[in-house]
Amino acid sequence: MAEESSNINGLAWFLAGLGIGALAGILYAPKSGRETREDLANSAREGTEYLRNRSKQVADQVGGMVDKGREQMGDYMDRGREVMDRGRAQWEEFVERGKSLVGDQSRRVSEAVDAGKQAFRSATSTATSTSGSGSGAFGSGSGNSGTPASSTGGAGV
Q: With contact defined as beta carbons under 8 Å apart, do 36 and 27 qualify?
């Protein structure tokens, strides 16, 4: 770890020395001051132009990445909506099935209750007609044994 830091530090000093040496070489070159200043100005303009072009390229690349990200996000949103719609449709189907099952069971229970009422009516009317005048609806005996015959008279329960 210390060796890496030393290498990086040494590289930084080397680059700094290289830059200072290049600057000293330009200043002490066999050109006139005007030519040297023009060369420095041209180099500065070229560097500025390079940075301007490079920043445009980077901006275009970043813009492309942003557009691609938006497109992917739109795709993910569409997939999410599709999944939500499918889930909602399945939920609605299950609710309708449940309603249908409850309706069927309710109808069956009503039919069973009606059949029970009908069976009770037929049983009480048969018991009343066969028992005659002395016995009640629940058995044989003499007279009124405390258990009265059907009090509904066949009108329903």
A: yes
